[in-house]
Amino acid sequence: MFSGVYTALITPFKNNKIDFDALGKLIESQCRNGVDGIVPCGTTGESSTLTWEEHEEVIEFCVKSVKGKIKVLAGTGSNSTHEAIHSTQFAKKIGCDGALVVSPYYNKPTQRGLYIHFKSIADIVDIPIVLYNIVGRTSINIEPVTIATLFKDCKNIVGVKEASGSLEQMSVIKYLAPDIDLISGDDALTLPLLSIGGAGVISILSNIIPADMVLFIKEFRDGNMRKAMNIHYKLLPLVKSMFVETNPIPIKTAASLLGICEPSLRLPMCDMEETNRLILEKALKDYGVLR
Questions:
Q1: What is the per-residue pLDDT across 206-244, written as a single tens digit (0 to 9) for each?
Q2: Cα(9)–Cα(252) distance, rounded to whole angstroms?
Q3: Which one from 132, 174, 175, 282 is the annotated catalytic residue?
Q4: Which domains does the chain have, with CATH numbers?
Q5: What would you report as the CA-atom Rg of the chain, rounded to the nearest whole angstrom?
Q6: Is-catalytic flag, 161?
């Protein structure tokens, strides 16, 4: 259901307000360059500092902007099950193709608590759901058995965005649930994940190089492994530069350097240190997207 390239959209700001003009142009670029979908209001979209009203405004704007050309997989997770249900209900009402639901952060629930949390959302909201496992942000891992059980018990839980960094865990998930949409949450692991049966990537990089990410997946699907591998290694230094500081600081700074939006972030996210900015600029120049 969810395969190929999905862009983890940044949320452009101007004077600390959402810059819908810049967001609209970014979405147009994504559609024009052939990505399969966009993911608004995730970690990269600074969802943690958006108000709930802004959260809904961004999701609705995305749905209206794509006009059915590509899919919208809206970030609707929360550390409160009640809030996650409410947000996921809005995503369904407004016409999203699915909901990306991150594991609860800070609470550190048990695996049983995680199961009940996700099943409660899936039982109440009839929309395709992709689980989002990112232990580095939430401090709790959704274990493969829990993911597989949810996939078996809930007809509308169709996939998982895996950002644990563990290919072994990803392999176990695919072993336990062969039909699940296993989606990379890390641009650097896209090729290895595809090689074990993954469906695609929710990409940070496709904010700035959507066509390259689309070509990357296409070459793999067409069986051109050597070409896919060459793209993988070309991307690698750029991927590394995206994590010289906490995401989304580098990708938003890169987008501003390329004229996509202003570099504005919301506190506690702040401007890049100059030394790291120089590293980022070099990576963009070496890749060939910045003069």
A1: 999 999 999 999 999 999 999 999 999 999 999 999 999
A2: 10
A3: 132
A4: 4-222 (3.20.20.70)
A5: 18
A6: yes
